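TOKENISE THE FOLD
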Amino acid sequence: MAAPTVSADTLGQLEERIQRTVALVNRLRDERDLARMEVTEAQEANVKLAAELDALRAEKSDVRTRLEKLLVHIDSLNAA
């Protein structure tokens, strides 16, 4: 049996394809890592915004309660 012969051009093309594939895999990994970092930052921002929203809701409730008390006092003055 004769050993198959592979030309230098074929090996060069294969090497080039492998190098492009490695470069693509590296780029995709970098993009994945960046996307993960962006997701983490977005989640942290979401937690902060949720906490801020809760604080604003509590403040709104407090203001409403205080206004209701003031209105009761005003009504009592008008009734007197």
Helices lie at 8-79.
